[in-house]
């Protein structure tokens, strides 16, 4: 068999198709390339987005801001002193972009002006935090990215 331009082009096309098939099969079956949506209820959360915008504006208008600091016991979230701790209701949601299994939510139920997220729940790395709370029928929302 003689190897000429026509044979070379056919071999090249077959090799290219084999490479693309290998790539497609590898990407669709390998779990390391699995990327999920941020949330399973994506469309439902999209409908509530305007409420989130309003709650963020309310939080930005506060004279005394919420502070987040890392200490030896975990992550301390301190609410403004002007708020009565018993009247604060809400939740803290910590989202780990690299691992869905590490995500968790803590309800806000405090007697002092701060909430402590235990250190054993937090793995070193990047976290996205949403603090949503309500005080006297006003909603507040803070979104932070932090590295623990």
TrEMBL record:
Regions crossing the membrane: 6-25
Keywords: Membrane, Transmembrane, Transmembrane helix
InterPro entries according to UniProt: FixH
Domain of life the protein comes from: Bacteria
Name of the protein: FixH family protein
